Amino acid sequence: MAALRSINQDDLRNHNLSVVLDTMLRSTAPMSRAELAKATGLTKATMSLLVPMLVSSDVVREGKPAPMSAYGRPSTPLVIGGGRICGLGLQINTDGYGVTALDLDGRTVVERWVAQPMGNTDPEDIFTELDVLARECEAFASEQGYHIVGAGLALPGLVTADKRLLTARNLGWEQLELDEFPVVSRLEVRADNEANMAALAQVPGYATQRKSDEGLNPVDSFIYVSTDIGIGGAVVRDGKVDSGMHGFAGEVGHISVALDGKPCRCGRKGCLEMYAGRKALIEAAGVDSGDQALRIEAVDELIRRWKAREQRTVQAVDIAVDSMVSAMASAINILDVDTVILGGLWQRFGTGVANMIEQRLQPQILGSSAIAVRVRMSNIGTRAALNGAAQVGLRCFLDDPLEFINS
Hints:
By secondary structure, the protein is α/β, with parallel strands linked by helices. The protein is built from 13 helices and 15 strands.
């Protein structure tokens, strides 16, 4: 008979601490020890061991005891304690690059962003400048008493699990070994596609305190579509990004909506981003063209003309909406997901456009009699991928809290 393997008590404690923290983050209200025990399935005796560890490390704090009921002792609410733990988020995008530090309670500790056109830039130069920004944010967070527990990096291209950027066509970058850049190796960043990072930022309680019961639930499934110069996408199932066998799932921007359509940089014709991408939409509306269409001022002008109901702009947006509907219908019919979240440029158009897309989309769903499609605008700000990258950094702590608590 093989020898029985002994249980590592530290591994068990680490797992239980992670479960407690995740449960607290997903709750919209403070929880008592008894409520946490019930929600997690852990015993009250186990909670009496775990909670003091979290409180003494300033990760959790005790609130004011609730008024005493007719029976028993008043319960003490437990809340995520801000000011101690933060994750670092780094992003290189088509309109610039930057760094943020995010508290476990959801507050932004510090953020730096450099806005500039990024097409055909030198990766070495950009990663060097990104390192400078990261060090500035690290120093500021440290001065405020924070412990940085991890870092994420969001990139606008295909990223492998072993940290290779295969291609970022809108940057003109190909085949980069990310660990060769000092900022990546120094921070041991977790790198991924920017749409995947942005999608994680939509999940309530993924790595920061959930704020309300409105909108999504922590284990919901949805398709995230983000419009930048191109269009990125991600598939989320049960609160986790489903990146497919090779990590490249969700590229809705390269679903063809016109087989004989405009040629795309990917080599195909009629890709969604050639009609609904930011650059394509600005050019179709006659706002600007070429490199000038990449400017944020061009986006502002596009929105101004659309609100003023300028005919060419309204027509361009209407074609873009139809293209989005066509691509989303294909994705929903394949994936059987009923919720779409729009980020990036489309957030600027407001909920009216989301409602328009939803109305046009519903009849194109094969199971429309049984499925009520929801199309929502992201409630994260303009830097969702940067926020998501910082949350990926925070997961380093949440997945292995004992290491940081002991240190």
